[in-house]
Amino acid sequence: MQKSNNIAVLASTKGTDMQGIIDAIETGILDANIKIVISNKKDAYALERAKKHNLRSIFLDPKGKSREEYDRKVSELIEEFDCQLILLIGYMKIMSSWFVQKYLNQVMNIHPSLLPAYAGGMDLNVHEEVIKRGCKVTGASLIFIDEGADTGPIILQRTVPVEYSDTPDTLKVKVQKAEVDILLEGIRLFFKKRLAVEGKKVKILA
Question: Is 111 annotated in the active site?
């Protein structure tokens, strides 16, 4: 029996990119289902977004748990809801080696730069550095995670022009649009089994 295109989202912040995925699913643009949204932060707005769209949302408290113990709890939920793809959207937690290996090439992370530039940076800090450095082009990268910080195989990238008048906030808006675009495309390619990982490279199959 063919599995459904089920997604688990792990989020620690607002989940702005997740809203783009929800909208695409609800309008029929994307053939997928967000089955569960898990957060390590009780006040993460991503949980509220999930509730507004009648999606299962769970705060999983990391207190008192080792990294692997926490990830095993996350894994139990992923398996319970039969999710084949895991999306990290503003997830402020490093995954354990156990989790990375168990879900190798099943966990996608979105990053607000053209990797490997500004790897390891977070959100507005990346945009501040891009502007400070005088970059003319920035963008977004979608990767499969590995055990490093933003060092996994790159699935897709999208460029965004940097205007002289841009601020970190205006640049963030432009980059987030690119993030949603490549997330949607990456999800489609994943469920169509068109992503082949060869070492550090991702080949998109015809």
Answer: yes
Length of the chain: 206
Peptide bond into 116 cis (omega under 30): yes
CA proximity to 111, closest of 83, 130, 131, 135 = 130
Identical fold for domains 1-103 and 110-206, yes or no, is yes
Share of the chain above pLDDT 90, in %: 95
- What are the pLDDT digits (tens) for 39-89? 999 999 999 999 999 999 999 999 999 999 999 999 999 999 999 999 999
Q: What is the CATH number of domain 110-206?
A: 3.40.50.170
> Which residue among 49, 111, 127, 172 is the active-site one?
111
**Residue 38 near residue 81 (C-beta atoms within 8 A):** no
Write out residues in the chain with pLDDT < 70, as ranges: 1-3
Whole-model pTM above 0.85?
Answer: yes
Query: In the prediction, which pLDDT does 88 show?
Result: 97
Domain residue ranges in the chain? 1-103, 110-206
Q: Strand 6-11 relative to strand 33-39: parallel, antiparallel, unpaired?
A: parallel
Residue 99: CB atoms within 10 A of its CB come to: 22
Q: How far is CA 176 from CA 11, 70, 76, 132, 144, in A?
A: 15, 29, 30, 19, 18
Fold entry, domain 1-103 = Rossmann fold (3.40.50)
